Amino acid sequence: QSALAQPASVSGSPGQSITMSCTGTTSDVGGYNVVSWYQKYPDKAPKLIIFEDTKRPSGVSNRFSGFKSGNTASLTISGLQDEDEADYYCCSYAGSSTWVFGGGTKLTVL
Amino acid sequence: QVQLVQSATEMKKPGASVKVSCTTSGYTFTSYHITWVRQAPGQGLEWLGRISTYTGDTSYAPKFQGRVTMTTDRSTKTAYMELTGLRSDDSAVYFCARRRESTFYFDYWGQGTLVTVSS
């Protein structure tokens, strides 16, 4: 059960759009339509921002969007704002009642 | 409102055990599974396992099998995670989170419990 692969860091300027990836295998990301994404600030609990690959929970900005193709999921944040600077984690069901997280991507707003 | 409130910071010596609690309120306890996730310093999130609050059924990450035990107390709507044989690399913030039956995401999280393992 290996962690999903995420780039260590991405960056963008306010107002720009960025996309980060999350790559797994056919046993996790590619095998189920249930990738979720979490936003995490230091010393805070993770916050759900995308579930079931593309859906947004109530109250989450529509600047956040999810996509998946094959074994790779992606998170796009449009109209970057300073408050978006955080760590982002993808997560997938991996079968047999187990889950796996990605290593996390640190987003820097320049 | 939905709340998951975790127990306080723990300091343990190598080889000891720790039991972290997660007391819930604001929803029907048995309608949601409880998952445990940890984050070591400078590291990412790591899934430890989950427990069905309705049946008590558990599943654990292979890495922790044999060292972790998850339980619940329906009367107090509390979930517990016990980790034995603590090592320094078990030092981390441990989170509980809820997941509705038949869904695959974690919508509410506890505030986290810092566990420090040091001699």
Describe this structure in words.
The complex is a heterodimer of chains A (110) and B (119). By secondary structure, chain A is mainly beta. Chain A has strands at 9-12, 18-23, 36-40, 47-50, 64-69, 72-77, 87-93, 99-101, 105-109. Chain A contains no helices and 9 strands. Chain B has 119 residues and is mainly β. In chain B, 0% of the residues lie in helices and 51% in strands. Chain B has strands spanning 3-6, 10-12, 18-25, 32-39, 45-51, 58-60, 68-73, 78-83, 92-100, 108-109, 113-117. In chain B, a hairpin with a 6-residue loop joins strand 5 (45-51) and strand 6 (58-60). The A-B interface holds A 1, 3, 32, 34, 36, 38, 40, 43, 45-48, 51-52, 57, 87, 89, 91, 93, 96-104 and B 35, 37, 44-47, 50, 59, 61-63, 95, 97, 103-107, 109-112.
Find the structural class of chain B using helix and strand composition: mainly beta
Strand content of chain A: 35-45%
Largest interface: A-B, 28 and 22 residues
Distance from N terminus to C terminus of chain A (CA atoms, Å) equals: 35 Å
Taking the sheet with the most strands of chain B, its summary is: 7 strands, mixed
Rg result of chain B: 14 Å
Spans of at least 5 consecutive residues with low confidence of chain B: none
Query: Between the first and last Cα atoms of chain B, what is the distance in angstroms?
Result: 40 Å
Number of strands of chain B: 11
Ranges of chain A with pLDDT <50 over ≥5 residues?
A: none
- Share in helix of chain B: under 10%
List keywords for this structure.
heterodimer, A: 110 residues, six-stranded mixed beta sheet, three-stranded antiparallel beta sheet, 9 strands, 0% helix, B: 119 residues, mainly beta
